[in-house]
Structures are given as C-alpha cells and as structure tokens.
Specification:
Radius of gyration: 20 Å
Shape: globular
Structural class: mainly alpha
Helix content: over 70%
CATH class: Mainly Alpha
Order of helices and strands: HHHHHHHHHHHHHHHHHHHHHH
CATH architecture: Up-down Bundle
CATH superfamily: MFS general substrate transporter like domains
C-alpha cells in the first residue's frame, strides 16, 4: 500500500527541517559579536533566540491547518520562505535590534508550518513498523541543521567579517529545500492507506473532532511533556554555545570558534539519537513513549547541570563527554513523542493535533529562553539558566510517570493487518 515515493518525501522534509535549524542556531555561537554590533547586552541578545522560539509556538498551533487543508507541499514551501527571506535580507535588516528581532519572529514562523507536516508524513506515507525510524530521520535533521550551523557560523563570520552576510549565505539550504519540496512532495497518498487508517481507528474515533481530541487527557498530558521537552531542547541549543564563549565569570570564556567546535559534542549526537530513539520506540518499547522520554529527560537533566560546574567545564575531556550525554537525551525522545501522536488521531486532524501539541509545547522553549535571558542579565551568569533546564527535565519525568496506561494504537494494528493480507 505504501508508495516508494515516501522516501523522497521524507528526504525533502528532512532538508526543510535542517534548513530551519541552521537559520535558528547560527546566532548562538556568535551571540557576543552580535550583541556588540547591535550595542545591546548579552541578556537582551538572547531575546533574538527567544523571539524565534516564541514565534514557533504561536504558528505551530494553527500551522497544522495549512497542512491539513492545503497539503504537505504548501506547508513546506511556506515555511521555507519564512526562514529564507529574512535570512537573505539580513544585510539590510541587521542595522538595528528591532528589525533583526522582527526578522527572527518571521523565521520562527517557519518551524510552525514545517513541523506540522511530520504527523501527516508519518501517518499517511509510512507503515507503522517504519514510523519510529522515519520520525528519527526527521528529528535527526534538527540536530544536523544545528550542527552545521554551529560549525559554519564562526567560520563564515571570520571569512566575511560580517555577521549579517554570514546569515544571508546560510539561507542557501532553505532555497534548495523549496525546490525539493516542489519536485518531490506533490504526490497524493494511497487511497488504500487512507481507508485503512479510517477503519483502524477505535469505534467512533475515525470521526473524532479537533475539539474532542483536545479534551482528551492523553492530549493534555503529552502537550505538558512537550513543554518540558521544548524548554530543554531550545535552551540546550541556544544557551550552551554562548555559555561556552561568554567571558568569565559569566561563562567559560572560550573563543567563538572553539566554543562552536565544542558545541558539536552537544548537537552532533542529536543526529543519531532520534534515529536510535525511533528504533527503540518501534522494536523495544512497542509503541509506548514512556521509556524513551524518561531516559531522555534523565540524561539531559543530569548532565546539563554538570556542565555548569567548574569541575566539568574546567576539564576539556569531561566537558565533551557531558555535552554528548546532555545532547543525546532530549533528541532521543522526539521520535517516540511524534510517532505516538501520529498514530493516535484520525488522518483528517493529525496535522492540527501535531501542531497543537508541539505548538503549545514550544511555549516552554520560549519561556525557558526568556527566563534564562532575564537571569543572565540580572545575575551576570548562565548558571541559573542552565539549572532551570534540569528542573524542566525533572518535571518531564514526573509527568510521564502519570501516564499509567499506554494507548493502544488501533491504527497501527489495522494498517499492519492490511499489509499482511
């Protein structure tokens, strides 16, 4: 029932996600340089990261409507235009903090449109036994984009001598993604798959409305977990690189290029972690999101706290190990959360439900960055901001423990049975 075109669609969506997070992260390793150029303090400069994430949260809530109503292609292209146009115009926008902040808000909207396509891609194009792995590929693109960004940002800044020009050049993957989305994602899903998904929903659930779906306890719980996930994810990627490069005693005091290279230990493992998490969800947890989520929160929560201690950041080898373990945890759980959501709602509303859960959840990332920036500005240190990441992870573990029973994925069972027949 499942077309081979699904791999082209998966690859196109992965390139789109990668491009978004390249554009998000390029500010982080050189945030000190940007704050100096714009004549603002470091705490205020973190608002350029917070504004991006806040926009993600706002647009994700209704970005799923675009995907459900107009299709995957429209959502991908619209999202990529939102991130690429402000980036390529940054040499014009970068003369004042206000215009840069507005550009970051527009860029953040891109994630809202593109992320909403994850649910429909998984549900409509991939059989249940491949959904965890496919989700791993998509979520791995977040860390791949972040890794490319932290490597390229300080190198291109040095090459061009202008952070605005660096941002403009880093828009190229977004334009490539637009072409790929147009060429490879316009095919309609198989009618047999749509029929199997409808037949597989539990009695009455195939006609489940968005309003009723939002009222389900599982929806509220998973959304609350994603709040903690987003707090940890966006703060890890946006605060750790400037923490490493900020002068002592505010941060570790490394050169921007060195801080960017060390940040690879945090972001590069996130390329593999979602894929491993997807395999874990499919093969070991059997569709239960609890184990991967709890493991992920514990890893990131414990090791991000250790990174903020002089004993660890004063030892280069120990710092790299802790960065890798902190960077593994949060991406490891992403596949479980998205695949679980994709298999829990009817195809007609899965884009909106994915958008709602991750949209409301992403407010946690915006809140974490806002409070982190406030604490950095008031205390002159990153310690409180990093400690709050560990706190969010602890809350996430408690919330997942409240999920007493795993929801039976009727869609998965029906679709597998249809394949077997």
């Amino acid at each position: 029932m499942y077309s081979k075109a699904r791999w082209k669609i998966l690859f196109s969506a992965s390139v789109a996600i990668m491009a978004l997070y390249i554009n998000m992260i390029v500010f982080a390793p050189i945030l000190g340089d940007i704050s100096t150029a714009l004549k603002i303090d470091m705490g205020t400069a973190t608002n350029l990261m917070m504004g991006f994430v806040l926009s993600v949260a706002c647009v994700l809530i209704w970005g799923g409507v675009v995907c459900d109503k107009f299709g995957i292609t429209a959502a991908l292209i619209l999202g990529l235009l939102c991130t690429s146009i402000p980036a390529v115009l940054m040499p014009l926008l970068g003369q004042s903090y206000s215009t840069v902040f507005i550009g970051r808000l527009i860029q953040g909207a891109s994630v809202g449109f593109v992320f909403a396509t994850i649910g429909p891609i998984l549900a409509l194009w991939f059989p249940p036994k491949e959904q965890g792995v496919a989700a791993g590929v998509l979520f791995g693109s977040i860390s791949l984009g972040s890794t490319i960004g932290v490597i390229a940002s300080p190198i291109l800044l040095k090459a061009f001598g202008s952070w605005e020009m660096m941002v403009a050049v880093m828009s190229i993957p977004g334009w490539v993604g637009i072409v790929m989305a147009y060429l490879f994602t316009r095919q309609a899903p198989s009618p047999e798959v749509i029929a199997a998904l409808g037949a597989g929903m539990a009695s009455g659930n195939q006609n489940l409305s968005v309003k009723k779906a939002l009222a389900q306890p599982m929806t509220l719980l998973i959304t609350a977990v994603i709040v903690c996930n987003a707090w940890a994810l966006y703060c890890l990627y946006n605060l750790v690189p400037p923490f490493l490069s900020a002068p002592q005693p505010m941060g570790v005091g490394l050169a921007s290029l060195t801080a960017g290279n060390l940040s690879l230990a945090l972001t590069a493992v996130g390329i593999i972690a979602p894929f491993a998490g997807g395999l874990f969800f499919d093969r070991i947890a059997k569709g239960n999101p609890k184990p991967a989520v709890i493991i992920g929160f514990i890893l990131s929560g414990v090791f991000i706290y250790l990174i903020s201690t002089p004993l660890v950041y004063g030892n280069r080898l120990l710092l790299v190990v802790c960065l890798m373990l902190a960077g593994w945890g949060i991406p490891f759980m992403g596949s479980s959360l998205s695949a679980y959501i994709a298999g829990s709602y009817p195809p007609a509303i899965v884009g909106r439900m994915m958008g709602f859960c991750f949209g409301v959840g992403t407010f946690g990332g915006a809140l974490g960055l806002y409070l982190g920036g406030r604490s950095i500005g008031s205390t002159g240190s990153f310690s409180t901001a990093l400690a709050m990441i560990s706190g969010a992870a602890a809350v996430g573990v408690i919330l997942m423990l409240l999920l007493r029973e795993r929801q039976v994925n009727k869609v998965a069972e029906s679709s597998e049975a249809s394949q077997t027949v």
